[in-house]
Give the backbone structure.
Amino acid sequence: KAYTIQVANPRPGDRVLDIAGGTGDLDLAFAPKVAPNGQVVHTDINEAMLSTGRDRLLDEGLSLPTVVCDAEKLPHRSGQFDLVSVAFGLRNMTHKDVALAEMCRVLRPGGRLMVLEFSQIPVPGLQWAYDRYSFNVIPVMGQIVAGDRDSYQYLVESIRKFPDQETFAAMIRTAGFAQVKYRNLSLGIAALHSGWKI
């Protein structure tokens, strides 16, 4: 997430929309960078998660607009934001193409999309080993640590169903973005995708 902030390079006065912002990690980092005249809007479809994030932000002295919304039907006007970010939330969206098109719509021309998401390791042997670890260890650890095997089982299954880097980059282009790039992190366990609205 720190690398996402670094690459996004928000500037004072920027308007930032953080989608699936949950506990507010990115919002907390974006807010001081866009101050004093910018704005960060903290959103999530899950009201309980959003509430937890809002409380955390308030504890840190930040009062940000907080909106419960579906990324496939953003309640914001077209061209409203300079930057749209999503960290580890896009793979949970049912219609990823619709959500990406909405993100493009709410960006101003010259605005930027940043999507940080779990991805695929581009080395078959390493991917095979990571899959074995993911499916056999992570759910067990979820049961031991959190008492919740099912959520961690869903996590690893949703990661495997998410498009690989090239396929997802093509989806971003189809949604209307240009100069689409991705950077593999941790050998491709995660990837940071970016694109510009021209």
The mean pLDDT is 94. The longest helix spans residues 47-59. The longest strand covers residues 107-118.
